[in-house]
Amino acid sequence: MLTNKRLILAHFWLAFIVFGLALVLGAWQMFVRSPLNTWHFNPEFYYRSVTAHGSAMGYVFPTLIAMGFGYAITEASLEKPLVGRRWAWVGFFLVAIGAVVAMIPVSLGRASVLYTFYPPMIGNPFYYIGVVMVVVGSWIWVALMSINFTIWKRENPGKPVPLAMFANVAGSYLWAWTAVGAALEILFQILPVALGLRSTIDAGLARVFFSWTLHAIVYFWLIPTYIAYYTIFPRAIGGRIYSDAMARIAFILFVVVAMPIGVHHLFADPQVGAGFKFMHSVFTGLVALPTLLTVFTICASAEIASRLCGGRGAFGWIRALPWSNPIMLATALSLVMLGFGGAGGLINMSYQLNTSVHNTQWVTGHFHLIFGGAIVIMYFAIAYDLWPHLTGRASEGFGLMRTQLWLWFIGMIVTTFPWHYVGILGMPRRMAFYDYANPVISPEAFSVVMSAIGGFILLISGTLFLLVLIRGQFSTKGEAGAYRFAIALHMPERIPVALNSFGLWLALMVGLTVVNYGFPIAQLMALSETNVPAVYVGASR
Amino acid sequence: MSDRPLFSPRNPWFSISVGVTAGIAVLSAIVGLVWLPLVQPNVKFSGLWDAICSAAGVPRAAVRDASLKPEFKTSGVVMTPQMLAGADQVSIGRGATLAQRCAICHGPQGVSDANSPNLAGQFAAVTYKELNDFKSGARASVVMVPFAAAMSDRDMKDVAAYYAYLPRVPSNNLDVGRPAPAIVVTGAPMRNIPPCGSCHGDIDNKAGSPWLGGQSAVYIKAQLEAFASGTRRNDISEQMRNIARQMTAEEIDQAAHFYEAQP
Amino acid sequence: MATETDHGPGEAVAARIERRWATLSIVIVALLVGMAAVIGIHRATMPQARVETADPKTLHLSGEFIESNLGSAVEPDGSVTVRAIGQQYSFTPQCIVVPAETPITIRATSADVVHGFLIEGTNINTMLVPGYVSDLPVRFSAPGEHVMPCQEFCGIGHQGMWGKVKVVDRTAFLNMTAAKRRLTCAD
Fold this sequence. Notes:
The complex is a heterotrimer of chains A (541), B (263) and C (187). With 541 residues, chain A is mostly helical. Chain A contains 16 helices and four strands. Chain A has one domain: Cytochrome C Oxidase, Chain A (Up-down Bundle), CATH 1.20.210.10. Chain A has helices spanning 5-32, 43-78, 85-107, 125-155, 163-194, 203-236, 244-257, 274-286, 288-308, 316-319, 326-349, 351-357, 361-391, 398-425, 442-474, 503-525; strands at 121-122, 200-201, 532-533, 535-536. The model of chain A has no long low-confidence stretch (mean pLDDT 93). Chain B is an all-alpha fold and 263 residues long. Chain B is 45% helix and 1% strand. With 187 residues, chain C is an alpha+beta fold. Chain C has two domains: 2-42; 52-179, Cupredoxins -  blue copper proteins (Immunoglobulin-like). Chain C contains two helices and eleven strands. The longest helix of chain C is centred in the N-terminal third of the chain and has 34 residues, at 9-42. The radius of gyration of chain C is 25 Å and the shape is elongated. Mean pLDDT of chain C is 89; it is low at 1-6. Chains in contact: A-B, A-C, B-C. Strand 1 of chain B pairs parallel with strand 1 (51-53) of chain C. Chain C: One of its GO terms (molecular function) is copper ion binding.
């Protein structure tokens, strides 16, 4: 039962328009930095583009998807209209306006600091203000998810909250607390300097704050994907979730251990002690646990679906899966990319292996494979699945959808595998151009061309995706029926309070963050001599 | 089981999850903060407490052991991007009076054809830093050193503010259509030469780097050669020598003539 | 769909398989974390041991990062200390010369923004954060040349920030130190 179709459609459309624009920038970047281009150009355009691409893809696009999907889940799984519809629109417009406010200085070249900010470099204050507006808009969504969750529980005492809603609320709480790190950095460190109220900033402390956000934000991006794995995929292929309880535990684990691990991005930084780096490394290992659990549950759910349709044999059931179904295809491709990306992630999490790839193109390859690959391909699947319910029109063109998904998968592999390879060779990331004529760099030229070709394939796939969505808006009218989520093989009638509420898990999340971040942050805050002069970017000419 | 209050040690969900989380945190803290630092062979700690504090990242100032002192005078200016931002009218007026004695070489409006640098519209921090370096002896010049020696810190700031206030005047060789040579647009990355404009103001400005547009080609060339050969060494921590010594004579010539033709 | 009524044995089997997989997952994670700890102990490759501070504004005025003290210095115990700074857009020294088969300590910091310090073809890779000193023990196994790019976005000239490292034979290095107390291969 979706009553706020326009609200949800607005979120999805804005998200995918932003995605399309950022995808064009991404493909352009792949081209200009490759040997296909003669590198006689102003490098500032490249960094400007990277800032826009990163801010759009990292902050605006997934936030809007999580919000729109969250509203859809609330109405469809709780089977009642969303409480706080007006506030939801306020949140939407805050994100939309924030995105525009941030992009104006970026497109003028006044904030080419990349989306990870990099103080003491400081850009135009409106860039940061825009990002804050995006985050504040998303916090309205967090509040709405929490309110709807609480109201439903009060109306249905003792009943288990539907898994989709439980996971959705887990994601919103995770995001609320994750965003605090970057919010502290922007509000108390960067903005006062950008507005000219202060002229110095502790870059080391800023990096610690940002690491608090930087890693867990990936799980915020990931949660819609995992919700789709658990609650859309089994239903779409005619199966069931293997286990409802284990799914809840996986989402709870993300809430608890996603935050206190961010310092693994700072393994090579001089401002954090080795002991805390080790502690964060241990918890980084733990965050692999919910993913391992998920992979098992999803594969088992697929097997159930296949055997229900007559699949047999130890591996024969894989062939009996409904491969012509776009959701089936997207999930399988997503899991393959998650597998490769996760393996790379295990390398990054260990200090010793990390030194050989830290800040090389390996890392760029890694997060494009995980986010752009495994996560975004499921965003496509979510859109394909929801579209008939949102537009009230029939879903057409499974073939086109499959082509688009395959192209995305192939494009992502062709882009990121060479990226990983040149990273191992030591190619540094975030550079506008490389002198491929130099014998040190020339062995990397071929791989970079491959990556660029992958980028073009991704652009084609992204265009096809938008075409499918546009076509869905104009196809023949058809009632898609109620939107349903998958149910579990053994549907629980009652579940422990712990698996139906968040109090305990939020307490552990905050507690663990305080344990792992409290001391490093406190001692850097107490330090005054490490406040260094701000370097304004694009200010004086 | 589900009827028991959640926040109670009798609820197994509570006791197990809190216990396991706390256990992992304590164990990893002991390994990370105590055990690992103590077994590091190449670090000497004065005791257990020192090892724990170091692993926790308690900061301390870098040890100031005997460092090798320079054989020549280096710049003593503390350069920050905020330096001399926002000069007042009093300072500019005072600077205008003081600048009269500069006019013979630098022109009454901060522009001259005498192959001495044009100062009109130059970043204040640049003029101030060079005057300081002339005074301290970090930069050599038979003409400039006696002038600078007589100037107080305030004099230098005011003169710098005055010249920054004057509008930039294009040189007689202005030719905006002149194509930019590769060494200016992209530099030569593998020789550690970034685009000139990434510091000198046409793309972005690094504190202390002068605006080059309209400067005499003879002057630019002479300075690049002086940096390259090491006869000029007042650039802080070799920031310009590193670049100039990688440039070929031809590239120096191209860059000098390109900037002379710029506004 | 027999599963609806089959709450007893089927559910128990499912739960058992699931528990086994969960246990296996925990073992995998424990193994990976344990590996990191063991390598940390036996190979002594841990993050730098101390947090040290240095004021980026006055690096060139006093202390160990003044211009004349940058470069490679031989210590009384025969090891070598390399001091370097990163700044927009070069490392000083622009070319670092070090001996092979010798324990070396690299001490480096930044004079302005965040830079990266990566020596290609080795595992030497750290961040230079203004205000803090990076300190890392390294060892080069064989003579040769490496490039040393800045690996962190440090401004519009970032792509032009490439230094060099020359690893020379140990005796050749010691001969060079007879003439000069701080060695570089810039010029």
